[in-house]
C-alpha cells in the first residue's frame, strides 16, 4: 500500500521530499487540492470541508498512512481526521520548539512565517504558549508566497521585493531563527536568506514529520520494498499530463539544491 500526502497545493512536496530521503523505497500518493488553494485566506469551516472531502478520496485509494503536509490543514483538522480513520494520520506544525531552544541561549528572537489562518489558530497559540517562556517568538503572515509557489514564480527579482515590503517594519538583526510555518515557503529559502544576517538559521517542520513517519511505519512493521513511485492527484483528478509531471520533478530537484545550502540546528 502507498503512503498518502495531502496539501492544499504544491507546498506538501517539500515534506514529501524529506520522506523520500528516509523512506526511498516506499510508493506514494500526493494529493494537491489546487482547485481550492490557498487555504490560508479562507474560512475555517470552508477549509475543513475541503480537507475531509480530499482525505475521503485518498483513503479510498488505499493508503497505510497519511501525512497532512499542510500547516493550516493540520491546525484545523488533524485531531478529527485521526478519530475518523484507522490508519496513522500525521500532521506538521511550525518548528517553534527547536527554534526557541536555540535562540534562548543566544539572546535572539524567533520569527515564524506562515499563513494568516495558521497564525490565528488556537493550536499555534497553544504551541507558542507552552514553549515561549521569555516572549521571544514573533510571527508574520506571508500569503503572497503561497500564490507565488502555486504559479511557479520563484524568481528572486519578483519574490525579494515582496519580502522586503512585508519585512520592512521589522529589525531583522534581532532574529536568530526563521521558522517556515507553511510548507510552500521552503521554495523561497534563498530569497528569504538575502534579507537576513548570514548567521540566521531557517528551519521547517518537514524533517521531523518525515522522521516520525518512518518511525511509525517501522513500529507497525509496514516498511515496503517499493520503487519510490509517486502518483499525483489534483483535487480528485489523476495527473497524467507530461507538463505537470515535469513540474513536480522540477520542484524535487530544486529542493535537492536548496538542501545543500541549508544550515541545520
From TrEMBL:
<feature type="binding site">
    <location>
        <begin position="183"/>
        <end position="184"/>
    </location>
    <ligand>
        <name>substrate</name>
    </ligand>
</feature>
<dbReference type="InterPro" id="IPR001920">
    <property type="entry name" value="Asp/Glu_race"/>
</dbReference>
<feature type="active site" description="Proton donor/acceptor">
    <location>
        <position position="70"/>
    </location>
</feature>
<keyword id="KW-0133">Cell shape</keyword>
<dbReference type="InterPro" id="IPR018187">
    <property type="entry name" value="Asp/Glu_racemase_AS_1"/>
</dbReference>
<dbReference type="InterPro" id="IPR015942">
    <property type="entry name" value="Asp/Glu/hydantoin_racemase"/>
</dbReference>
<comment type="function">
    <text>Provides the (R)-glutamate required for cell wall biosynthesis.</text>
</comment>
<comment type="pathway">
    <text>Cell wall biogenesis; peptidoglycan biosynthesis.</text>
</comment>
<dbReference type="InterPro" id="IPR004391">
    <property type="entry name" value="Glu_race"/>
</dbReference>
<feature type="binding site">
    <location>
        <begin position="39"/>
        <end position="40"/>
    </location>
    <ligand>
        <name>substrate</name>
    </ligand>
</feature>
<keyword id="KW-0573">Peptidoglycan synthesis</keyword>
<feature type="binding site">
    <location>
        <begin position="7"/>
        <end position="8"/>
    </location>
    <ligand>
        <name>substrate</name>
    </ligand>
</feature>
<feature type="binding site">
    <location>
        <begin position="71"/>
        <end position="72"/>
    </location>
    <ligand>
        <name>substrate</name>
    </ligand>
</feature>
<keyword id="KW-0413">Isomerase</keyword>
<comment type="similarity">
    <text>Belongs to the aspartate/glutamate racemases family.</text>
</comment>
<keyword id="KW-0961">Cell wall biogenesis/degradation</keyword>
<protein>
    <recommendedName>
        <fullName>Glutamate racemase</fullName>
        <ecNumber>5.1.1.3</ecNumber>
    </recommendedName>
</protein>
<feature type="active site" description="Proton donor/acceptor">
    <location>
        <position position="182"/>
    </location>
</feature>
<dbReference type="GO" id="GO:0008881">
    <property type="term" value="F:glutamate racemase activity"/>
</dbReference>
<dbReference type="Pfam" id="PF01177">
    <property type="entry name" value="Asp_Glu_race"/>
</dbReference>
Amino acid at each position: 500500500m502507498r503512503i498518502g500526502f495531502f496539501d492544499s497545493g504544491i507546498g506538501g512536496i517539500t515534506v514529501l521530499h524529506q520522506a523520500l530521503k528516509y523512506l526511498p523505497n516506499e510508493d506514494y500518493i500526493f494529493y494537491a487540492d489546487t482547485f481550492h488553494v490557498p487555504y490560508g485566506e479562507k474560512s475555517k469551516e470552508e477549509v475543513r470541508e475541503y480537507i475531509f472531502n480530499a482525505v475521503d478520496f485518498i483513503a479510498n485509494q488505499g493508503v497505510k498512512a497519511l501525512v497532512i503536509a499542510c500547516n493550516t490543514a493540520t491546525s484545523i483538522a488533524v485531531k478529527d481526521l485521526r478519530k475518523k480513520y484507522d490508519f496513522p494520520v500525521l500532521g506538521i506544525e511550525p518548528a517553534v520548539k527547536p527554534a526557541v531552544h536555540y535562540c534562548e541561549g543566544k539572546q535572539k528572537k524567533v520569527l515564524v512565517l506562515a499563513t494568516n489562518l495558521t497564525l490565528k489558530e488556537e493550536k499555534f497559540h497553544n504551541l507558542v504558549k507552552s514553549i515561549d517562556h521569555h516572549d521571544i517568538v514573533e510571527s508574520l503572515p506571508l500569503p503572497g508566497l503561497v500564490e507565488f509557489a502555486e504559479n511557479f514564480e520563484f524568481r528572486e527579482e519578483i519574490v525579494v521585493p515582496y519580502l522586503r515590503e512585508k519585512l520592512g517594519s521589522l529589525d531583522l538583526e534581532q532574529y536568530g531563527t526563521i521558522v517556515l510555518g507553511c510548507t510552500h515557503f521552503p521554495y523561497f529559502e534563498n530569497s528569504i536568506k538575502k534579507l537576513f544576517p548570514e548567521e540566521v538559521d531557517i528551519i521547517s517542520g518537514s524533517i521531523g514529520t518525515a522522521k516520525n513517519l518512518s518511525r511509525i511505519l517501522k513500529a507497525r512493521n509496514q516498511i515496503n520494498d517499493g520503487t519510490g513511485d509517486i502518483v499525483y492527484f489534483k483535487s480528485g483528478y489523476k495527473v497524467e499530463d507530461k507538463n505537470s509531471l515535469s513540474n513536480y520533478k522540477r520542484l524535487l530537484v530544486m529542493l535537492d539544491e536548496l538542501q545543500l545550502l541549508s544550515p541545520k540546528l
